[in-house]
């Protein structure tokens, strides 16, 4: 009781004063701790272990605890704790697994008091009990927690979390309860008097939990921080741990400390990337309440100077500096915050927030039907104005869109029906074009069709040459543009050819003939066919790209045309072409079109328009390389993205793959992917989102479905982690996944109860729970299948 009375130190009688100051250390610090009267601070690290006196103007080195010519690994500290009841007692956690206590009252230079070497791996944390003077707790990388009685030379109890390494242990301000955080994301609550089993366990974070801290006033509140960049506050007074506040930070949370005398304030620092120290008001988790930006490297330790003074914060860092921060000198991020905001809703609604002074001038603005829904600021007592958030009031304006004109059913249907892989490129384009066409999106459908034409393999397309089948010319609209001016000559020619050949395939080129066309079935000129004139313009067929027609408005200027003799000389150069009909060779002498006399050449009168270009080779390469189209495809993708259709941009990126990927920078691709994935997840299209992530070529995207998916498997018998793959536990040599219904090993889909950990085959468990609510393993637990 004598030592208990020494704990109560009236802050009013010994007011702490000082300023923002720092001192350089000999080496980077891993942890710091302050004595109970706030006059001294101890700094510990791998190569430093010193005590500094905190004066009003500076830090003054008082004692160096690293003594000897060759200091042992016991001086290499991962954590340090100064006893809050016994001012001469320190404890350190060594990197070699030792727990060391130090007595500053010893007259010798070496202040080491006791050495405990029961841990097999690095000790991450040591903690003194707030009221029991001789009780010390440690948490180690070996997954064990040990309680030491400083009057004995060994631990009095060992706590096994049946999990991976212990990252932090903290005694509660009441009773004998302590909290332990683990590498697998769990937090366990233990009673120091019952080392055989924890009282409660819950999953706090999706990754390792690096730190925890009990609230000094609300004793049921526990703050935790983890690698998932979150700080969570849990209410432990209920039957199940309840998350009541959550703060999202920008980096992994390494330390968390509640601010004295401020119920809703806590301080955090990061393990990497971010060097700043943040003080958060957990009621306003989106922006820090205050920021300390002095450190140039990662902050490794933070502690409030006195348990009843909220104005002084001490910190150590890997930049080998020790700082004292005054709260009035902190940066207030809210002063730099932008009071304007803009956001689109899922269905296209637009919300815009701005200062009330700007919005109130808008006379067309209608008040919200629900009234003023601004929340007041909550303060449990009237405090100094510097302790309050800056009062910035913004008015929210919502622009709603007509639901019928802006529904997003097409987006969902397109995402579900599009094919992005698994078939040849041409089939993917055709399928996606069909989907877009059925959803009445003709521009998108045409885009897919054009992509197929531009990027398909030429080997898969029909050859485009000069020597096609003869009949294709018959389908050209050019053929109906002519009629014989001298109708008698045309009639006579037909009669003569009819008599000489006894054939029915007469050439009808008359003014009343409006159009001549052939079907694919009539492509071959055979005996007795009623097709158009064979080889009318020579054996070489004119392709669509080689055929040009004049405008109709030129019809008045050019009334008559004659076919020059040179236009028919090609017939004699390629008479041996096997594609020409044999009977055509016999008709050449009788044909009126092969006469050498210019006067016998019939004149043609244009009906609509006429142009004939006779060439012996194509004007350009029929199949351009795919790279030729890349610039226009890149512009097309940018157009769709700027219009908000990132679905089209991402789908084309995936389907084209390497054909277009190098044409677009990685940051732009990543931005498109993230936007599309965000929309898919907002529509709860999880499978489509995962497929897009899997098919992405951006490294920043492919890793999205590989995070937060770690599965830790423990043996159902010995409760230890499974160290190897398979169904057999290496420690107890029993099968870990036994079905509680059929008692066979589950080698496929396994379902288990999170309450009792028993499970089995999915079908067996479903059938069992249809007729019984109790666990099939006989443990008595009431299992639920949801």
TrEMBL record:
Record keywords: Autophagy, Lysosome, Membrane, Metal-binding, Repeat, Transferase, Ubl conjugation pathway, WD repeat, Zinc, Zinc-finger
Pathway the protein acts in: Protein modification; protein ubiquitination
Basic and acidic residues bias (residue ranges): 493-508
GO molecular function terms noted in the UniProt entry: ubiquitin protein ligase activity; zinc ion binding
UniProt GO BP: autophagy; cellular response to amino acid starvation; positive regulation of macroautophagy; positive regulation of TORC1 signaling
InterPro entries: WD40/YVTN_repeat-like_dom_sf, WD40_repeat_CS, WD40_repeat_dom_sf, WD40_rpt, WDR24
Catalytic reaction list: S-ubiquitinyl-[E2 ubiquitin-conjugating enzyme]-L-cysteine + [acceptor protein]-L-lysine = [E2 ubiquitin-conjugating enzyme]-L-cysteine + N(6)-ubiquitinyl-[acceptor protein]-L-lysine
Protein family per UniProt: Belongs to the WD repeat WDR24 family.
This protein's name: GATOR2 complex protein WDR24
Organism: Oryzias melastigma (Marine medaka)
